[in-house]
Amino acid sequence: MSKIEEVKANVEAGKTKLVPGLVQEALDEGHSAMDILEVMVDGMGVVGDKFSSGSIFVPEMLIAAKAMSKGVEVLKPYLAGEGSTSLGTCIIGTVQGDLHDIGKNLVAMMVESAGFDMVDLGVDVSAEKFITAIKENKAVKLVACSGLLSTTMPALKETVAALKNCGLEGFKVMVGGAPVTQEFATQIGADAYAPDAGSAAVKAKALVTAA
Ligand code: B1M
Predict the structure, then answer these.
(1) Biggest alpha carbon distance in the chain?
(2) I need a labelling partner for 135 at 20 to 30 A (CA). Which of 34, 82, 117, 125 fits?
């Protein structure tokens, strides 16, 4: 098994202690950070499929998520560039009712590296909390809302509506997450949709520089 395959297998198995070392070894062997990230995301896909088929349960999913997060910590300096000039502040969070944060964390990392100051509100974030954060932070140019569950897509819709109707201006709203599509984003009135962390960074920059 190659080192990169070992990373994937150990993320799937939730080997929290082994994954960081294996990620470092894969980097040392010359694998790119993006390739290593990709195999870890694939590993989480396998975990999700096993959960869907009933062969694993929530605790195993949680342990795999922890293992991936540990691996991402090692990759972070290799993935994030150095945004020298600030494009403004980005407020990010996973919407209310939703506890998934790996994808949101990756988006935060990439958008920050594109040149934004990042304020991460974490998971289970209500529309009110997003609005309070816009008021409490300077130069908010982007609000990024993540949602991973089909059951929290209504929360995304409510959040976008609240942000658009709160009377505050000067920021754009981007949405994303596995069940989200461009069609849904347009339907709920978001300014942008991105399918993954890399394109979220590109879109974020384009949104605020075009404004
Ligand atoms: Co949950 N879960 N989970 N889970 N989980 C999924 C999402 C699921 C698809 C698994 C499955 O059934 N196959 C399924 C959702 C089905 C659906 O709604 N369609 C599911 C379910 C059902 C649940 C529970 C309801 C299970 C239960 O309790 N019975 C429960 C809900 C809890 C809650 O949130 N209220 C639950 C719980 C959990 C854990 C807590 C155990 C854990 C999360 C831990 C954590 O995040 N810290 C977990 C995990 C790990 C998963 C899977 C296996 C992996 C998610 C992940 O991290 N993927 C997931 C299956 C899967 O994804 N195939 C699953 C890797 C990550 C990098 O990808 O998050 O998609 P992703 O992010 C991508 C893009 O989506 C995009 O960019 C990212 C990277 O490029 N993106 C954005 C994300 N946000 C964005 C924002 C943007 C732009 C792009 O702009 C703002």
Answers:
(1) 56
(2) 82
Decide: helix, strand or coil at residue 30.
coil
Averaged in consecutive runs of 10 residues, what is the pLDDT profile of the chain (211 residues)? 94 96 96 92 93 94 94 88 77 98 93 91 98 96 98 98 96 98 98 94 89 60
The pLDDT score that the predictor gives to residue 7 is 96
For domain 89-210, the CATH architecture is 3-Layer(aba) Sandwich (3.40)
Domain 3-81 has CATH 1.10.1240.10: yes
8 Å CB contact between 201 and 113: yes
Ligand 1, from 91, 123, 148: best to mutate by most atoms within 8 Å of Cβ?
148
- Pull the structure tokens for residue 163: 């942000």
Q: How far, in Å, is the centroid of ligand 1 from the Cα of 133?
A: 24
With 0.85 as the threshold, say if the pTM is over it. Answer: yes
Q: Any idea where the domains of the chain sit in the sequence?
A: 3-81, 89-210
Report which protein residue has its CA nearest ligand 1's atom 58: 44
> Which residue's CA lies nearest to atom 77 of ligand 1?
196
